[in-house]
Amino acid sequence: MPEKNKIHILYVENGIGYGGAIICLRHLIRNLDRTRFEPMVITGRTGLDYQTIANEAEWKHIPDRRIDIVALRRKVENTFLPGKFPKLHFIINQLLARTDDMANFIPFLLQVLWTAKCFKADIIHANNEPLCNRAALLAGKILRIPTVCHVRGDQDGSRLMKWAYTLPDHFISVSNWVAKSMQEKLHIPPGKISVVYDGIALEKLDINADGKEFRKQFNIAADAFAVGLVGLLILWKGQELFLDAAKQLRDKIPNLKMFIIGGTPDDCASYEKMLRQRVVEEQLENIVVFTGHVSRMEPIYNGLNIVVSASIDPEPLGTMVIECMAMGRPLIGPDHGGAAEMVEHGKTGLLFEARCADSLAESILQFYTNPHLDHQLGKAARIKALETFSVHQHTQKIQRIYQHLLGLTNEN
Fold first, then answer.
1. How far is it, in rounded angstroms, from Cα 389 to Cα 409?
2. For 61-70, what is each residue's pLDDT tens digit?
3. How many C-beta atoms surround the C-beta of residue 78 within 10 A?
4. Which of 107, 152, 181, 243 is the most exposed place for a label (fewest CB within 10 A)?
């Protein structure tokens, strides 16, 4: 039962998989002032990583996908090409949409409503974009309690997506780039947006983690040059671009190893299959390694010669960028989105031309040919991270947002 005289925050996490968004949420929950705030977390997905949230706060799994409409829609696309049977294609998609409403959205909404009421939530904090968390935001409207929505992506999408952005009372943007995009594309008033960089428990990062542990696990030779792309296996994360760069570099860097590091959401199993087929067809088996999901990242950061972010679409500000900088590791990122906002080219990392495999390969080669560059840039990156991404600072800013929404801005 929720304690009285505390502000009850109901967090709803409805992301595509266990990635940066849920990791940052867990950092926030661990550091909330428990004398003033009581958290509860709802996740649409489950699994061991999600279940351990119960060690930090009250946790409840409410399935957000009883029927996998995405997979069914994909089968329809493969069976009935839109151009060949447009009317049939339209009818089937409408049926799938209504099935999604009845089987997935409405049950999820009703359970969130009931949970929020029983928990006596004072605020609902949606940890992902408004569209995938519209049930949580609607629950806030129905119960007449303030809602906060964390925004980590861009705002290009359907009319339904744009409508979903009208629901939150306040937005937390993870970068100035995201905030600017919201204002320009959706005309959201600046007063409804707070820019709060994701917080990382920097003091708990093991900057001295043994990188040899990672190398030993994957049989990496001591003289191998290991480059790692970190992120969920999702199309826009840039794994294909990474493979394009690997093809260019295999004859230029002896003992090159290119690691694709991250788990695969259920929706993206076909994408992983395609990547693996490319590796075989393009004879990259001796260079490219898939690690799958990794829980402890510090040995990987220290075991790699270079860490890469290669998102082909502007990414707000990936957790791996923050962690890598805090670990003082050499980083390469695209020159758009949050990476460009945070990484100062030539001082705290290298930026390459977004979506350009040639430019990415050149940046990797620059690190390889300049053995002192990694230490120089890594040291400066760590200083920048310690100044910017304190989880304590992150938590304090979000707690003040909660107080403001509840009219408690004069409290300490």
1. 24
2. 998 776 665 6
3. 8
4. 107
